[in-house]
Amino acid sequence: MDEVKKNNLSSQVEKELISRARQNDAEALARLYEAYFDKIYRYLALRLRNNYEAEDLTQQVFMKVLNSISSYKSTGVPFSSWLYRVAHNQMVDYLRQQNKKTTVNIENLPLAHTGDDPQSKLEQQVDIDELKKAVNRLTAAQQEVISLRFSGELSIAQCAEIMGKSQGAIKALQHSAVIALRKALVNEA
Amino acid sequence: MNQKAQFNNILSECLDRILKGETVAQCLRDYPERAAELEPLLRTASAAKVASTVQPRPEFKARARYEFNSALRNMTDKKSERQHSFQLHWHWSSGWAIALVASIVILFGGGGTIAAASYSMPDSTLYPVKLATEEFQLALTSSDLDKTELNARFAYRRADEIVYLAAKGDIDQVTVTAERLTSNLQNMTNLADRDGEDGPVVVAPGTITQVPSPNDLAPISTFTGTDDPATTNEPTPLQSDRTSAVTNLETSEQVNTNRGGKALSPKLERLRKIISDNFEKRHQRLEEALKSASPDIKQTLRMTIEKSKNEYSKALQNLYNSPQDRD
């Protein structure tokens, strides 16, 4: 918790760090790395089937950031959006290479009839593996919005910037994603 | 605003609140007319909050941080080398070289892979790409001077890898990487020597003896197999070794100049600086590793440090013996 607090940067501090990082200032780059490393890992871990893939890609994302930070323009896209965009692109490339992307149209899945109350299942703690399985059954766009909102804890505005959609579109997508996630979790249960 | 958009707004607001720690009940209280529709979605969101608690494994985090910092150091080193703006350049311009680079890029799936590989450690799947890329760089470099510089740089990478492996306690890989380090250093020394055989020695004869020999460097005692300070013949602290080595070197230059002997040519002086700086940084890294290494790894590290010192000294001697007008 202390580490989280320590790594959360105020927007002013972050702005200064980004400015220095663009000049390849090692200390600034290291601080940005510490601030975002866990978040990017979480974002990737929810979308990828095993944690080793998430680990490899997290490292690749930050190596990429190291090589391309000087080309990042502080005007326009916020740094966090740019960073998640890098992570997103890295993941899409990876999944394309691995040909691992399998999406089931969750809208057509029936609710499971287990005899238990599905809602009470969700009252209980869902573990991360169950959540990952459920998320993997959503469409790519639904997965993306769930990852950004729940792993990255990003706002609707940030999600809109990263996904290149309007805030209204993100809210609608979020709605359909949460419905689909519910169905998937109940079916998993 | 239509009903659907209105509901999406309420849902978004409630999700924000749940992400910040509020309960489902608190949100529902504010929207009783929508509670039936909202509740199942908010409970799902509440369950999905587990995603924000995922943490990377500490050992992965440590390794990743180490590799990132190594990459940072590498970048900073390159930046400072660029600032020297000396004309040590690689011969990338010819068409055949570009074609070869392109084929490597295709072979390994792109430049990103090579870039990522350059920061990889010996236990990484990308490490063979790193070594292959180094070989490739050496093969593309025609000048012995540039090759010497590359070998010096690769030797520093090996030292970095040894530090990482020593922290992991991987004795087998430490040994293998130490051999690679020695090989890089021997290449460096041999390259400096090769030109020296062909031409006359231009530097005034007296100055050669000023270059530190292996014996000038403080000896490192042999590891006795125990870490007990009372029974172990503790090695000379590396900090002082390093200082003495570098100090000797600077003195040799001063004496050389004071006696009216020819100073090294700008290129050789540049190379001397690279070798000396590299030696200093390498030893700082190895010294770090030595502090916390297990006894069996300490033994390997001490042998590596000793070899490194010897090769450093030989390389400098060769440098001072070299013709001044070489490439």
Give a concise summary:
Chain A is mainly α. Chain A contains ten helices and no strands.
Characterization of this structure:
Chain A is mainly alpha-helical and 189 residues long. Chain A has 10 helices and no strands. Chain A has helices at residues 2-7, 11-22, 26-47, 51-68, 79-98, 118-123, 128-135, 140-151, 156-163, 167-188. Chain A is globular and about 50 Å long. Residues 1-5 and 100-118 of chain A have low confidence and may be disordered. Chain B is mostly helical. Chain B is 71% helix and 0% strand. Chain B is built from 13 helices and no strands. Chain B has helices at residues 3-19, 24-30, 35-48, 58-84, 95-107, 111-117, 127-140, 144-168, 171-198, 205-208, 238-258, 266-292, 295-321. Chain B is elongated and about 90 Å long. At the A-B interface, helix 3, helix 4, helix 6, helix 8 and helix 10 of A face helix 1, helix 3, helix 4 and helix 6 of B.
